[in-house]
Amino acid sequence: MIPAPFAYARPTTVDEALQALAAGGEDVKVMAGGQSLIPVMRLRLAAPETVVDLSKVEGLRGVRDDGDAIVIGAMTTHSDVLSDPLIAEHAPLIAEATGTVADRQVRHRGTFGGALVHADPAGDLPAVALALDAEFVVVGPSGQRTVPASEFFVDYLTTAVGEGELLVEVRVPKLAGEWGMRYEKFNRVAQAWSIVAVAAVVRRENGRIAEARIGLTNMGPTPLRARAVEEALAGAEATPDAVGAAAARAAEGTEPSSDLNAQADYRQHLATVLTRRAVSAAAGL
Amino acid sequence: MTPITVRVDDASYTDDVEPRTLLVHYLREQLGKVGTVVGCDTSNCGACTVHLDGEAVKSCTVLAIQADGCEVTTIEGLARGAELHPVQKAFHEMHGLQCGYCTPGMIMASIDLLKDNPDPSDDEVREGIEGNLCRCTGYQNIVRAVRSAAAEMRGGSDGTGDGSVPPASVSPAVVDTAAAPHVAAQS
Ligand SMILES: Cc1cc2nc3c(=O)[nH]c(=O)nc-3n(C[C@H](O)[C@H](O)[C@H](O)COP(=O)(O)OP(=O)(O)OC[C@H]3O[C@@H](n4cnc5c(N)ncnc54)[C@H](O)[C@@H]3O)c2cc1C
Ligand code: FES
Ligand code: FES
């Protein structure tokens, strides 16, 4: 099918984009890479009156060093992320997870910011952003604000980005000390979307796990932190037994959905197994 | 209607399109480039793959209006006169197709992969074309075709330019007769 008719705006600055959003009528949609939006428009699950295409907006694409953080522009494509030296150095978890997203065609157009604002529970980058304590820079008619990852993902396909607002960039703090990271994903071979996945970021100190941050993909309507595991790992010995015991708590407090790929209890089982693998790898075990 | 100017397979076109026109429909219906096909409604199958400014994209998931000012290469723009592109030739020689519906997309995705990785392993080929589905071949001969083309492209047109030899696993499809007894029985 082809999308329903819509008016199309292609602004070249953030200000113009905000104006186009304000002028776009009742149902206006931002388009980044279009790799989620065009499919839903083709299926007529969305039929916006106006589409504001960000692809020509200056300054939203690319990664820069900002001292204690790296800053990733919302329009940086998945393929740009995979070849970016700053991401490879400071946040290799993002590249690892991005490498599992979709396929090379979709990665050429789909964007880092689009995947985060789309906030599909099975999407790979939200849990990664959560585990890295990223911050989201959002602009709107009343100016700019910064939203921590813990407040960004509000509900199923819903983020803190309001109507008339844009995500412009994401700040990822640089980590000091001896950190390891790993993304463990379980999916069907012919479909890249995660059934469950786990993002682990672990700091080791003197043979112990000093700190661990665990993000869970597709274990509820939003990405989650596995707080019980994080608490059990803080100060724990970096041994397979200690990691296994902590990882057994990965599904605590989660309410994953059941669908044709997996029942809820199977997802909970997967979460414990993938958490053990991800933490073990991140801790260098 | 909005005017766009696009270069497709080395020719320039200026046309009016509706914003909702998908690039694949513009190519097929307005330019008659029916070599690029549509296989699904969900951006999954990759049959519609073309190169947009040198990068493989699913042309069913790009608006024609977004190609304004860009360069598009379709399967129809690969051959030089009667001479097929090495990847086209390898799909032919290695029996990398049965019904052929997935083939234009497979070839465009494979060329994109070989640009980044000129010497992929079997697994790297399988991952590199994960966005392209084939309902016929079981992929075995597609992987062979891509590796054979890779060897040819690395080695120059006679396959010997840099002394590299095609990988041992690359040979014409005789091996597959084991998996297709009706073919074996005929030979
Ligand atoms: C076949 C296929 C397989 C896929 N597999 C995976 C997978 O395995 N894992 C995965 O994580 N993803 C997967 N995806 C989705 C892919 O990652 C998309 O790139 C991503 O979800 C959306 O990014 P986009 O830039 O294309 O956004 P778009 O489709 O353009 O936009 C998505 C949504 O976000 C909004 N939006 C986008 N950017 C902004 C912004 N800067 N400010 C405000 N709102 C914005 C749009 O309005 C829209 O609602 C897949 C997609 C396809 C087609
Ligand atoms: S037709 Fe484009 S991906 Fe199937
Ligand atoms: S040859 Fe028929 S779909 Fe691939």
Q: Can you give a write-up of this model?
A:
The complex is a heterodimer of chains A (285) and B (187). In chain A, the strands form four sheets. Chain A has a five-stranded antiparallel sheet. In chain A, strands 11-12-13-14 form a four-stranded antiparallel sheet, sandwiched between helices. A three-stranded parallel sheet of chain A has the order 1-3-2, with helices on one face. Chain A has three domains: 7-53, Uridine Diphospho-n-acetylenolpyruvylglucosamine Reductase, domain 2 (2-Layer Sandwich); 64-173, 2-Layer Sandwich (Uridine Diphospho-n-acetylenolpyruvylglucosamine Reductase, domain 3); 178-282, CO dehydrogenase flavoprotein, C-terminal domain (Enolase-like, domain 1). With 285 residues, chain A is α+β, with helices and mostly antiparallel strands. Chain A is built from twelve helices and 14 strands. In chain A, a hairpin with a 3-residue loop joins strand 4 (63-65) and strand 5 (69-73). Chain A is globular. In chain A, helix 11 (240-247) packs antiparallel against helix 12 (264-282). The model of chain A has no long low-confidence stretch (mean pLDDT 97). Chain B has a five-stranded mixed sheet with strand order 2-1-5-3-4, with helices on both faces. Chain B has helices at 23-30, 86-93, 103-116, 122-128, 140-155, 181-186; strands at 2-8, 11-17, 49-52, 55-58, 71-73. Chain B has two domains: 2-77, Ubiquitin-like (UB roll), CATH 3.10.20.30; 86-171, DNA polymerase, domain 1 (Orthogonal Bundle). Chain B is an alpha+beta fold and 187 residues long. In chain B, strand 3 (49-52) and strand 4 form a beta hairpin. Chain B has six helices and five strands; from the N terminus they run ββαβββααααα. Chain A binds chain B through residues 1-8, 10, 34-35, 38-39, 41-43, 51, 53, 55, 79, 102-106, 108-109, 190-192, and chain B through 2, 18-22, 25, 41-44, 46, 49, 52, 55-58, 60-63, 65-66, 109, 112-113, 128-133. The structure holds flavin-adenine dinucleotide and FE2/S2 (inorganic) cluster (2 copies). One FE2/S2 (inorganic) cluster (FES) is lined by residues 38-40, 43-48, 58, 60 of chain B.
